[in-house]
Amino acid sequence: MSAYLPTFLPPSLVGGFFLGLSLIMAIGAQNAFVLRQGLRQQHVFWICLTCAGSDALLIVAGVLGFGSLALAVPWFETVMRLGGAAFLLWYGARSLRSAWAGGAQLDSSSDGTAPQAALLPVLATVLALTWLNPHVYLDTVVLLGSISAHYPQPLIFALGAVLASFTFFFSLGYGAKVLAPLFAKPRAWQVLDALVGLTMWIIAAKLIWM
Prior knowledge:
Layout: H1 5-8, H2 11-24, H3 29-40, H4 44-63, H5 67-72, H6 74-101, H7 119-131, H8 134-148, H9 154-175, H10 186-209
């Protein structure tokens, strides 16, 4: 089967796809937010597009050599790390407060759906979760950028990683509908909010003490 792989799927494309997928599949603040919004079925398309589009910009930047620029600025990683930690602590506290309050914030309309949040604040949150995370620069820009140089077609490698990002985020956002019946109960939302909050705080602690 591998003998036919170069003909139908360039090795650079396959390598970029699976490496990109492995880097974004880990549970993190951004993925937790996408899952939560997918369960609420609110602005799913725009959230997934924002996450995948941001990844695409960072991947291309890394492949084009901008990862070396981040390494050349000593204070860049520290500023992004502490800024990201501060944001995650705030967002985690908000999620834990929602968990403590129960289903109060999920007061439903007559059709049983959660009230619709405004698009711009939601996108601002997902952008902050994406761009204030220093790991996104270390993994997506520096790591992917350096590994792409070992492939014969770096831009094809970047395309594979971009396809992985779009595949993952849209699958996570829209696939969350499968779990929607479970989250018809306020208790399930409490558990999810608690897990999201704890995840944010754990990641923030790692950023502070790393």
